[in-house]
Amino acid sequence: MDHEEASRRLLDAAEQLYYARGIQSVGMDEVRDTAGVSLARLYRLFPSKQHLVAAYLRRRDERWRASLARYVSERAVEHGADRRGRLLSVFDWLAEWFREPDFRGCAFANAFGELGAGSGPVADAVREHKALVRRYLVELADDPPRADSTEIADQLLLLLEGATTTAAITGSPDPARTARAAAAALLAAKPA
Amino acid sequence: MDHEEASRRLLDAAEQLYYARGIQSVGMDEVRDTAGVSLARLYRLFPSKQHLVAAYLRRRDERWRASLARYVSERAVEHGADRRGRLLSVFDWLAEWFREPDFRGCAFANAFGELGAGSGPVADAVREHKALVRRYLVELADDPPRADSTEIADQLLLLLEGATTTAAITGSPDPARTARAAAAALLAAKPA
DNA sequence: AGAGGCGCAGAACGACCGTTCTGCATTGCG
DNA sequence: CGCAATGCAGAACGGTCGTTCTGCGCCTCT
């Protein structure tokens, strides 16, 4: 097992365990056991638990955004979607995510809520994720370019965030539908 | 010190410590020290940590909703506000809350994200809080009565939730302004 | 063969956690 | 006064945590 494989296994284990059960309640022993990688190597690859958590979140951010972008892009091709169609398909993707059996809300908000603003690399990873998602929404809203892209993107970001938390707490995917309807109304309020 | 006073001190301490630092990282010893109440009495009043957390959240829910309702009501009197004005003043209240020095996001979502859906009395308290806030928004939206009150209330609830989390993560009160503008647009999209 | 380097499993360390226990002090009553 | 009841501070218990250490096995090289 080379370092890349060990790292991948550790991040898989971290993702599975921390997302399902929170961060502080999962010890490094359990990450080791789940990953099948020794503690010594774990600490060689990630100098502390905070580093491991931040790394898992950064990898998750990439995968999450890539999954969303792929979906929006494919739907745009299938349906010849315009700006509105592309922005609304974000919420269709949300609906699918909320229905996944291991859905447990936003890993980034959960980690931030658990560990707080002073949690160094973890808080940084969370903030960067949110900034990148916002940027993606601005890009979608700005195609074709318009003066209100940032404003609408910010509003849709709040709907996305609120729907994710609400879906986790209520255990229902309905907030995706609610958010989509709100997004449609907001887009309709600002025609081209 | 009677039981009521001890209970109040314990809930004050719990609120201060758990909201600021998360739940698992604050031991019962520290709650005891902060409250100035013995561990024996603490356990007599709250049989377990979960009970204490749930009790603090339930008290916080009452205070939070009361503060919001008072603000909305006072603003309605001051400005002769109609349905739209009352619903929008929810977001004005949010803006003030986000500016408080100890603001750290939604205590309910944070606790849920940290402890998970299986956390018994805590998860129950979180779900009930969300349901009560939703009901309050439905009441605001239904005055005067309309067929779309639940729909608009659900949409505003997502904005409220998304703004709270985003404000905590970004450390900025701006999401309240963004949410208010979105709420205004949603209300304008459905005139009387 | 022997020596050195590397990596492992899991023990060890010190800290913290949730909860219960214990020696002691205080209070109230007869 | 003596006795019983009550409550306290904080020790104790058993468990878990993050991190480092140690004895051992394996591999490579001379």
Automatic annotation (TrEMBL), chains A, B:
Domain HTH tetR-type residues, every copy: 4-64
Superkingdom of origin organism: Bacteria
Residues within the DNA-binding region(s): 27-46
Keywords on record: DNA-binding, Transcription, Transcription regulation
InterPro entries found in the cross-reference section: Homeodomain-like_sf, HTH_TetR, Tet_transcr_reg_TetR-rel_C_sf, TetR_C
PROSITE patterns in the cross-refs: HTH_TETR_2 (PS50977)
Protein name (database record): TetR/AcrR family transcriptional regulator
Organism for this UniProt entry: Planosporangium thailandense
